[in-house]
Amino acid sequence: MTVQSNGRLLDKVAIITGAGTGIGEAIAHKFFHEGAKIVACGLKSDPVLDVVNKINSMGGKAVPFQGDLSQEQTAKAAIDFAISEFGRIDVLVNNAGVFLFAGETQEYETKSFDETILNNIRTVFLMTKYALPHLQKSKGNIIAAGSEAGEIGIPYNTVYGGTKAWVHAFIEGVAVEQAKYSVRANCVCPGPVDTAWTHRQSGPMNLKMEKSLIAATPMGRRGTVEEIANVYAFLASDEASFVTGALWFVDGGITKSKGPIGLDALGKDVRDEPEGKILKDLEHTQDGLKNKNYKSA
């Protein structure tokens, strides 16, 4: 695929945090296909350069920024870098985050708690703080990664759910506060998605947690990263010009379900993941926890 000449994000400049793997990689590709210029951010250990090189090889315009965005000077430097490269910022995607532990709360390691707070909360605050003056000039928008866990909580990683509840409330407040500047702010709140986080082989979940996660989803499957990125693209575009302060649940119905209703979907077409348009171009869907200090249940 190549960039669309009439893409919904044509010539918009988007900063995407956590762009090296999983949903972030998919957002970067989706935005590229919609015409955006990309500043792909990630940790130095993340395959950000792979994502940037792939997009540029397909005719896009993407530049990398690597560093720990939970550190104030690094977050500010990322914003300054975007301005120096493209002269403006239209969209900030606060996607970066971690899912490091699976276990009961009394077993939750304080080190994992602190790291989760840094990556899931402090990064969102700092990037938003330093991007807002530029977004006010461009009348741009912010999209943050929420979660169904931020709405209904999540056992065996209660801290993760708590951080996402904070993101929901923070973005809702930003939306109301910044509306007078024509800046919009929304959350995309995924349910179980087909990334490293939801597979016991590559993340902290055990077999029981993995099975119950799917069973609790009415559609009986994980979402794909492209299905999540599609919603980000809509919210980032002018088509969503009257949408602000919203929590968009892209969760296969898990937020509204009661019990293992997903078992009813066994053998039905609803359980088949769509082939999508950009999935074949993604190389790091399952790499989100590589080089991260997570603990399995």
Automatic annotation (TrEMBL):
Q: Which GO terms describe its molecular function?
A: oxidoreductase activity
Family annotation (CDD domains): SDR_c (cd05233)
Query: Where in this chain does the entry annotate a coiled-coil region?
Result: none
Give EC number(s), comma-separated.
1.-.-.-
Record key words, sorted: Oxidoreductase
UniProt lists the family membership as follows: Belongs to the short-chain dehydrogenases/reductases (SDR) family.
Q: Which PANTHER family match?
A: EG:BACR7A4.14 PROTEIN-RELATED, ZGC:101858
Q: What is this protein called?
A: SDR family oxidoreductase
Species: Peredibacter starrii
